[in-house]
Write a structure and sequence with these properties.
The chain is mainly alpha-helical and 329 residues long. It has two domains: 88 residues, Receptor-associated Protein; 219 residues, no CATH class. The chain is built from 14 helices and no strands. Helix 1 packs across helix 2, helix 5 packs parallel to helix 9 and helix 8 crosses helix 11. The protein is elongated. The relative contact order is 0.09.
Length: 329
């Protein structure tokens, strides 16, 4: 299975593993079922790697590690140690299903604005070529090249910004300030954080180890740094609640809830509830985000279209004036 962002494929893969293991089928037997039911080369490589790893005596999470990101590995490692492997697979299936639905909504919401953008670039190019008595096809090809370059630049810019936010807290904080996008990223990151902590606590792992792995699973530099600071405070003798409350990167409601749960001995249930709560919030945000982002993009496209129309009108008026001057009018 590829490490790249293919939520639909990953959701289906983890759903099958969750169903098989929940039915009492061992992972080694499940891998044989998957090898027969899947034809995708990337998935088959992951299944074969899992089979080899299990034959060598490695854990399931370690066997699948080359195909997992930090969040997936953290959840499966903790779930396996806590005897909740089916729950771990099920959580990953729900997470990737949520991402898949959000991407589908986003694509659907952006279709019309992208169509308008294409028309705003290509139609003026064609009309300008006709008015200037130039070949139309090269003008259209130039417009398509401009659109492709703009798309590539946007994609590379987003990849760079996302990578920077995963490494540098200031870039992470900057992304957090973007309307719609910032709250959605935070909800997804905290859902991952809470899920890893839940499985780590359920498996009786050290709290400091759980904090570090949960931080790594978020993919956000501020939460990674805050989790490391909290882990160091716990290792120095602090309780979990005060250690989290001292970190501005964590919402106060999350830190206060875990502090109360630590006092009452219900950290396991609180982290599970928190993971579900943040996942539900992320689902709500991701349902509304595509429409809002598409609306903002659409406004930008309309502004660009208006500029193109104005520019075309100016070119037409200049041509008309030249024609009038040539006639001596």
């Amino acid at each position: 299975m590829p490490t790249g962002p293919k939520p639909s494929q990953r959701a289906a893969f983890f759903r099958e593993l969750a169903s098989l293991t929940a039915a009492g089928i061992s992972v080694s037997q499940a891998s044989r079922v998957l090898s027969q039911s899947w034809r995708d080369p990337a998935v088959l490589r992951a299944v074969q790697a899992m089979e080899r790893g299990l034959a060598e005596g490695r854990t399931i999470a370690d066997a699948l590690a080359p195909s997992l990101d930090a969040m997936e590995y953290g959840i499966l490692d903790a779930a396996e140690r806590g005897g909740m492997l089916a729950d771990g697979f099920a959580h990953l299936e729900q997470y990737h299903a949520l991402r898949r639905e959000a991407l589908e909504r986003g694509r659907a919401a952006l279709r019309y604005p992208l169509f308008v953008l294409g028309a705003a670039v290509l139609l003026p190019a064609a009309v300008g070529a006709v008015l200037g008595q130039k070949p139309v096809v090269p003008a259209l090809l130039g417009g398509l090249a401009w659109l492709a370059g703009l798309g590539l630049l946007a994609w590379l810019g987003w990849r760079w910004l996302s990578a920077a936010a995963a490494r540098h807290p200031r870039w992470d904080q900057l992304l957090g300030w973007i309307p719609v996008l910032g709250p959605t990223r935070e909800a997804l990151a905290l859902a991952r954080w809470q899920a890893v902590m839940h499985f780590k606590i359920a498996s009786s792992a050290r709290i400091s180890d759980g904090l570090r792995q949960a931080g790594a699973a978020t993919g956000r530099a501020r939460l990674v740094a805050a989790s490391e600071s909290a882990a160091q405070a716990v290792e120095a003798g602090s309780e979990l609640g005060p250690a989290l409350l001292a970190q501005a990167a964590f919402p106060r409601s999350l830190a206060a809830g875990l502090a109360s749960a630590e006092f009452t001995g219900t950290l396991d249930g609180e982290t599970q509830r928190g993971a579900r709560e943040w996942m539900a919030r992320a689902a709500w945000l991701m349902e509304s985000a595509p429409k809002r982002l598409a609306g903002a993009f659409y406004v930008g496209v309309l502004v660009f279209t208006a500029w193109q129309i104005y520019h075309l009108g100016q070119a037409y008026m200049a041509m008309y004036q030249q024609f009038a001057d040539d006639l001596g009018l």
